[in-house]
Amino acid sequence: MGLLSVAIWLPIVAGAVLLALGRDEQAGVVRWIALVAALAAFLVTVPLITGFDTATAAMQFQEDLSWISRFNVRYRLGVDGLSVWFVLLTAFITVIVVIAGWEVITRRVNQYMGAFLILSGLMVGVFSALDGLLFYVFFEATLIPMYIIIGVWGGPKRVYAAFKFFLYTLLGSLLMLVALIYLYIKSGGSFDILTWHKLPIPLHAQVLLFFAFFAAFSVKVPMWPVHTWLPDAHVEAPTGGSVVLAAIMLKLGAYGFLRFSMPITPDASREWAAFVIALSLIAVIYIGLVALVQQDMKKLVAYSSIAHMGFVTLGFFVFNDLGVSGGIVQMISHGFVSGAMFLCIGVLYDRVHSRQIADYGGVVNTMPKFTTFAVLFAMANCGLPGTAGFVGEWMVILGTVKANFWLAALAATALIFGAAYTLWMVKRVYFGAVGNRHVGELADINSREFLMLAVLALAVLWMGVYPKPFTDVMQVSVSELLKHVAVSKIN
Amino acid sequence: MNDMNWIVIYPEILLLAMACLITLVDLWVRDPQRRPTLWLTQATLAAVGLWHLSYFDGGATAYGMQAMVVADPLGHLLAFFAAVAMMVSIAYAQPYLASRDMLKGEYFTLSLFVYLGISVMVSANNFLVVYLGLELMSLSLYALTAMRRDHAVATEAAMKYFVLGALASGFLLYGLSMMYGATGSLELGEVFKAIATGRINREVLTFGVVFVVAGLAFKLGVVPFHMWVPDVYQGAPTAITLLIGGAPKLAAFAMAIRLLVDGMSGLAVDWQQMFIVLAVASLVVGNFAAIAQTNLKRMLAYSTIAQMGFVLLGLSAGVVGGNTFSAGNAYSSAMFYVVAYVLTTLGTFGLILYLSSQGFESEEIADLAGLAQRSPWVAGVMTVFMFSLAGVPPLVGFYAKLAVLQALVSTNQAGYLWLAVVAVLMSLVGAYYYLRIVKVMYFDEPARSESLLRGRGVGALLAINGAAVLVFGLLPGGLMNLCRDAIVKALAS
Lengths: 491, 493
Known about the structure:
- The complex is a heterodimer.
- Chain A has helices spanning about 5-20, 25-50, 85-100, 110-130, 130-140, 145-155, 160-185, 195, 205-220, 230-235, 240-265, 265-270, 275-290, 295-315, 320-350, 365, 370-380, 390-405, 405-430, 435-440, 445-465, 470-485; strands at about 60-70, 75-80.
- Chain A is mostly helical.
- In chain A, strands 1-2 form a two-stranded antiparallel sheet.
- In chain A, strand 1 and strand 2 (about 75-80) form a beta hairpin.
- Chain B contains 20 helices and 2 strands.
- Chain B has helices at about 10-25, 35-60, 75-100, 105-120, 125-145, 150-185, 190-195, 200-220, 230-235, 240-245, 245-265, 270-290, 295-315, 325-355, 370-375, 375-390, 395-410, 415-440, 455-475, 475-490, and strands spanning about 60-65, 70.
- Chain B has a two-stranded antiparallel ribbon with strand order 1-2.
- In chain B, a hairpin with a 4-residue loop joins strand 1 and strand 2.
- The interface between A and B is large, with 35 and 37 residues.
């Protein structure tokens, strides 16, 4: 069994064991088992990056077994520069999520921890699957634990949010399933993604395939106008659910563009790039404005996520090195930053049980340590140089300038909106005089909360100051991808 | 061809003998749980099922009773699956029936006759034998539905089932007589050859096939011949609903293969068109109507209608442009779908039985509220069934849908591609009401707080059933290959 298999199945098996055997009376044991499993799963992924060969765009750490011989489906795993960081990010965020739910979740602890561990393994599977059907199975299976997480531990409108989340994403991915089957037939009976990359396809079929993939991935990213499930899901989900949604699940969609849409249907991608760019810019600008007027902190960060993901898709579809690398860097940094932002909201919510901005004010007076972290993450969210948020946005804007100056100018307004809505929220929540009695009684973060925020803060700063390890890994893969996309597949 | 070749029907003879014997033995059984009868019945089914399985391994095709019946791998495999389905149904049903004073010897005898009918149908090679098997199965099922004599709803359901079923049988018989008139033979192989000559009046054949398909559609319960399904599913005692919804679906599939593929493959253009219309109508009506239901059994009935639509889609992709190249692929996908469906349905109704065996009927969806807190295991198993029916990976229902969609797309025709898109969108609609069950179990608060009593054997069987749905989802390859081998061999002969 290879490293990737261990990274996938270790958390899934641990989660299944917790589901089967855990009881609420032994919540303490359950938590520790979950933490140990999450940490072990994270440690397993570390050799993936230390042993990664940055000189090649080929798949590494490959595994290949026959799975369903009837349809020639293979259990084929592997990572390249585009995906390897997401495997680590997933395992890392899972550790954080387990810590974040430590004292907060008291009801059905084993189901909560089990769901997150299983979800984590499934998402690693999505990032490392090299077989189309295997990818689909992992991609779809993630819906089940997330549906349960939102529905069981969510807020008052959790049922509505859970259904919306499930049905929206299912709609997109079912159309992708038809596309996958079509490719299977066209390629003469293979579900191998790398084989599909080389498959010549006429333009009209490419366009249909492109839109089938687009349906699945744009909903997941999410892009305007199919983003409406995200604010609901984020607001109602428990803190851990929001963190995983923002930090990783949204990336499944963006990753799909890189692995499926662009290399399999390059001509259609170029043909419809303007369309995708237009939607991305609407997300960046319009959703940025929408974020400005939000009263609910979680909603604000949710809209800010959509705007940031708009940058990612924008970067991908300008088709140059800086744009695509910038998009991937943005995905990783957004994983840290948005995750941290949701954790901060969670910290406040656990104490005051409100997410309304109006219910806060002057938190810095009672929670100075916490506010330091919160402001740092807010700055990263605005894209302040020296933090993770800056690197990706800057690269995407540079890449866009190469393609078209005016597009870049429009995209750059996002930095202004981003700063506006983030800083305005920071001002209203953290600074000023103590807003009310509840804020006056707040206790600062305990060592558990300090630990998880500090780890994320280090990651955000490290990525902002020294992004080279991230960009080095993806460089070769990105330029190979662009070379591939530049060649027409119409014959 | 013309010899009796008794060995082909040895399993059926054993079955018949045992059914008679069990009827007699039961007269002396005093035990209210009827254990001796139960174990004799189960042993008979197991023996017959294994017998069929051992024939399947042989893989040869043989004709018996002067070519009235055929013993081929397809028949053996379906008979084996049906035997397993019957055994599971009886095991689930026994505590439920016993606690309601409905566990009479007739239940076992009639169940064995249902299975006898199924096993005659799956190995029929003659129009009349198909009809005989069908009637044997149906009449036994009517009687079982009416078993709760003093219950108005059950009696009404039985009445409806009987009248509509008899009508459907009439349709079928009428269509078959047309075919006989046109081709001059009742034997499937001869009919096939006669049609292939192309010298037969096409109008008579088409006329006949319309009636055959209508009769078949009744038995499968697809729109617009579906009216009986919700009423019978809801009205029949749940233990009988389980029996109706399980093994007979395998028989209906076998009947479609025997009559339409083995006999009338030459008319595929005609019946495939009808199947496509029936399938799309079933997907739309079944899925949308299921959303509105509050009764769990009724919801599952509509869901069955929609699921049968998928089976028809698989059957309708066999002959493309007069070319039977993709037939093996299409029919084996439909067969895999039926098998996966039966596996999941058995579990679903078994679970309802399990819940209600504690003394209260859990027929309403609302009765499941908060089940996850009262009994996490049972809720978990039910979740597996629901997601499987909704077609979410990694459960067996997903691969069933995948196989059918794959059969549609592989025809390489734009029309079939759009059909696949329609099917996919309808399964999205379907996902809604399956999800609602999960929602009720996990998100709602229970109306009663005490945890469920633990049934010993049935609970374990349910867990195994759930595990099977999951394991065949993780490793569906073996079951898929079995279905393909059976179909390919049946088509080759």
